[in-house]
Amino acid sequence: MPGRWLPDSVDRVIEVSELTKRYGSKTAVDHLSFTVRPGQVTGFLGPNGAGKTTTLRMMLGLDAPTAGAATVNDVPFHSHRRGLRHVGALLDATQVHGGRSAAAHLSALARSNGIAPSRVKEVLREVGLADAANRRIGGFSLGMKQRLGIATALLGDPPVLMFDEPINGMDPEGVLWVRRLFRRLAAEGRTVFLSSHLMSEMENTADQLVVIGRGRLIAAESVADFAARSTRRSVVVGSPRAAALATLLTAAGASVQPQDPLNTERLTVAGLAADRIGALAFDNHIMLTELTTRTASLEEAFMELTADSVEYLAGQAR
After folding, report:
1. How open is the CA angle 113-147-167, to the nearest 5 degrees?
2. Is residue 269 exposed (0-12), middle (13-18) or buried (19+ Cβ within 10 Å)?
């Protein structure tokens, strides 16, 4: 990929200001405001029905907002005559003409956006589809269509990139490739905005998060700061007298569970800080072999902090 020149950082900022979208009496996006900056991967999270895809569509000018605005490089996306040279996006990898070849699909987009024909071969090679360039897209697997969608986003060598669920259908090798690609694009100084339901991948890929629920902003901060907001902190403690320690800690008000059913000497303790556990063990002459504070994972923090924003609860009555 070129990545040899990028405009000043001010030209790579996504600004969403009081963005609102209503469909009749239903509000899909509700006065949403956030900023996405270059040089980092920003994850876009929210429960199903939170308004993520609607927000992305408004950012790209595919849906008109009821109120508010979204700009890329200080102007609405539709103001750019040759959009793919400013913003590359993948919203739905299946929305392609199945009768065309991958090369024909990209060549048409290159011509309409004033992009050199040589870029078609470059991006197909970049995404691992060089050998499938002349195959009909209708015969592609979902993972191959995702790769083609990413190639489309990269075609204009844009400074800003947006992706909606880009690793659906990817095999483990493909997931690892996408992760490395997004990290490299951000390291080049590009703005990378990524929506995904896979918390483990977001935890491994994103630097910053924008989290929404029921169309409203919940958080806009680093991954570490978001996870630290969770109350689900625990302490892993090990002792050859784990049973006696568990009785002692439970009496002190802690919740104690085995850390591993196959290792009876390790416990997970919630409700008491590590220093308090250590003091209780010392006072009662119980030797400890481990005392580690465990912070919540991104998935645990997400589930806790978006609990009131979940629209569809499986197996539960509202």
Report:
1. 120
2. buried
- What Å distances lie between residue 210 and 52, 170, 238, 283, CA to CA? 10, 24, 37, 45
CA–CA gap between residue 277 and residue 274 (Å, rounded): 5
Distances (CA, A) of 247 to 88, 227, 269, 281: 58, 30, 12, 11
To the nearest whole number, what is the mean pLDDT of the chain? 90
Structure tokens at 88: 């590359």
At residue 318, the pLDDT reads 42
Structure tokens at 318: 């509202």
Number of helices (H), then strands (E), belonging to the chain: the values are 10, 13
* DSSP secondary structure letter of residue 213: E
> Nearest-CA neighbor of 138 among 94, 170, 171?
94
Give yes or no for a contact between 290 and 277, defined as CB atoms under 8 angstroms apart.
Answer: no
Residue 8 has pLDDT above 60, yes or no: no
- Residue 82's pLDDT is 81
pLDDT digits (tens, 9 = 90+) for 191-219: 999 998 888 889 999 999 999 999 999 99
Reduced 3-state DSSP string for 286-297: CCCCEEEEECCC
Average pLDDT over residues 81-86: 85
pLDDT at 46 over 60: yes
Residue with token string 């680093």: 222
Report the distance separating Cα 215 and Cα 52, nearest Å: 8
